[in-house]
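>> received
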Amino acid sequence: MTRTSTRHRSALVTGATSGIGEAFARALPTSTGVVLTGRDKEKLERLASELAAPGRRVETVVADLATDAGLDAVVARAEALGVDLLIANAGVGPFGDFLQASEESLRATVSVNVMAPVVLSRRLLPGMIGRAKGAGRGRAGLIVVSSNAAFVPVPRLAAYAASKAFDLSLAESLAAELAGEPVDVLALCPTATRTKFAARSGFGGGNLPGAEDPADVAEAALHALGRVRTLVRGPVSGLLLSGPAFARAALAQALAWALPRR
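>> returned
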């Protein structure tokens, strides 16, 4: 795979109010317009004001991606801006015994972590690819934020880990299916990262030792897009899981070639 030098003209970043999503928004060049979405209006507006630059279009959409209305609103704004980079980052997940978790929290985990990337990708990719073809230059991009947890079952994070395994498989499959199209697909699998996810999930208020800076994760992912199909982060997990990730991507591509098209 080769990386093009063309910068993306506009990007949609989900879960942009904090953590890796905010880091992605800050890492994008000022030449790239952005649609930022999340549930906290005040944080979105503050981030948008900090990212503003002459000639740059920065828009916000306050939306709950667990709802149809939220997905509709985000897609409409992204299409209006003509995004050519989709960063599906938003994620939630309760920590604790599965049988003690509320059904509401489990439904939210599946809706945000699984259904939102599926719906956003299905609705936005046709237009993104079409615009890339019509322009005759550049490539569209899709980054699906999965996790190291996608590779192993994680007790007390059962629904979250399962949802991230889905995200990994989705991105790998799309990368193989769309290999002949002007779009780069990356599955990003971070290790422990210094975000508020642990506190929100109920795991604890602190970060695990050796947790990475979200800015480093976002920068690495943007650099990897178009160069690899799966980026596994972490000094230990990256070393252990990069081989299996490469093998999975190769198998996905072989299956894409072997299976008949409809």
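>> Residues 1-5 have pLDDT under 50 and may be disordered.
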